[in-house]
Design a protein that fits this description.
alpha+beta; 276 residues; 38% helix; elongated
């Protein structure tokens, strides 16, 4: 019901790299180059550490990564500030069709409840006739999939602001009634597609090497910041991280040495590599 985007500072170890098709919070599906960030510590806006499992936090590899002196590697110590949102990871191509069916059923139920709430509002003052017509039009647009639920709620709240205060309270009651339905729908989707958290708009990037194995066969190409807006080039540079991950796996190079965890708030190394 609320905007699920938050700007948060993260610190962690790059544990994995993979191109994944994901469902975003606006119910769109897209292919992203993603880094799995192993947990060291994460901070909220007040500087308090947040204990999220290492395998649920993903970072979208964007143009800002190409501004770093070299390519990011598995096991690197990464600091990043970005937008956090809940997502789901697609495991089968038919997931998108199934999710669309689930959301269509939810949309019908929400539209029915919204129409019932609007129908039972008094048809006399203080609700203006023009306001009622505006809300009816917004509901039709939502039913026709021309508006998102968030937009419908925002427009309704804005339309009711000049009206009697109790109308906003009554609308808040409708939103409260919709929360269990939305939560149940999300739980269905989470059963179908793995839930995770995604960091987008990553900026203020800092990378330091947590481990320096003697990888004589590993020579990543340096980034070219002038090509940061080139989608194909960004993906090409990201593939180096994927290759780095495969190299470490083949030669059984540990993510970080055991000594690196001493005195730090890390999860067990096995948990850092658990995400797949």
């Amino acid at each position: 019901m609320r905007d699920r985007f938050q700007t948060i500072r993260f610190v962690g170890v790059v544990a994995a790299a993979k191109s994944r098709r994901v469902r975003l919070s606006d119910n769109t599906f897209t292919q992203l180059d993603l880094l799995s960030l192993g947990a060291y510590y994460y901070f909220d806006s007040h500087g308090n550490p947040l204990d999220w499992p290492a395998w649920t936090l993903l970072v979208a590899h964007n143009a800002n990564f190409l501004k770093l002196p070299g390519s990011v590697s598995i096991g690197d110590y990464l600091k990043v500030t970005g937008k956090l949102q809940a997502i789901n990871l697609e495991t089968r191509r038919q997931d998108e069709h199934t999710v669309a069916h689930i959301l269509s059923a939810q949309r019908q139920q929400i539209a029915s409840r919204f129409a019932h709430w609007l129908h039972h509002l008094p048809r006399t003052a203080p609700l203006l006739k023009a306001t009622r017509q505006y809300l009816e039009a917004a509901l039709l647009a939502y039913t026709a999939k021309q508006l998102s639920l968030g937009t419908l709620i925002t427009r309704t709240r804005q339309a009711l602001l000049p009206q009697a205060h109790w109308l906003l309270d009554d609308f808040q009651g409708l939103q409260n009634d919709l929360r269990p339905l939305i939560a149940t729908t999300q739980a269905q989707i989470d059963q179908l597609m793995t839930p995770a958290f995604l960091i987008t708009h990553g900026r203020r990037l800092e990378v330091s090497r947590a481990y320096h194995p003697a990888m004589v066969d590993w020579h990543p190409r340096a980034n070219d910041p002038t090509r940061a807006q080139d989608d194909a080039y960004r993906h090409e540079q990201f593939q180096q991280i994927v290759a780095n991950q495969a190299f470490r796996s083949l030669h059984q190079v540990p993510l970080v040495p055991q000594s690196y965890f001493k005195g730090k708030r890390f999860w067990d190394p096995q948990n850092l590599e658990r995400y797949s």
